Amino acid sequence: MVREHMKRLAVRTKRHYDSKVKDVVFHVGDWVWVYSPRRYIGRSPKWSKQYGGPFLIEKVINAVNYATLVGLPAYQLSRLQSVLNAAA
Q1: What global pTM score does this model have?
Q2: What are the angstrom distances between the C-alpha of 87 and each of 26, 32, 44, 64, 81?
Q3: How many domains is the chain partitioned into structurally?
Q4: Which of 31, 51, 55, 79 has the most C-beta neighbours closer than 10 Å?
Q5: Domain contains 12
């Protein structure tokens, strides 16, 4: 009984998540911010910069990894944010 309820709950939660999630795709030539928080001793992280850049995407490695023009290592999609959508 509990197992069936948990299965129904999992299906309902997945359906709700899938209805809200948006696919983000970056292309070569797009400008992005890279999430790279830096912690300083004695300073509140609330006021520190969380994103670096903007950087130009040089190469799309696969669906979730992108290389920037600066020569930094490849970044996962979860660490990137579009420059145009940064205020949103």
Answers
A1: 0.59
A2: 17, 12, 22, 22, 10
A3: 1
A4: 55
A5: no
Judge whether 86 lies within some domain. Answer: yes
Distances (CA, A) of 55 to 37, 38, 84: 16, 18, 12
pLDDT tens per residue across all 88 residues of the chain = 999 999 999 999 999 998 988 877 888 888 888 887 777 888 888 887 777 778 888 888 887 788 877 656 666 555 666 666 554 4
Residue burial 12-47, b: 16+ Cβ < 10 Å; e: rest: eeeeeeeeeeeeeebeeebbbbbeeeeeeeeeeeee
Structural domain range at position 66:
24-88
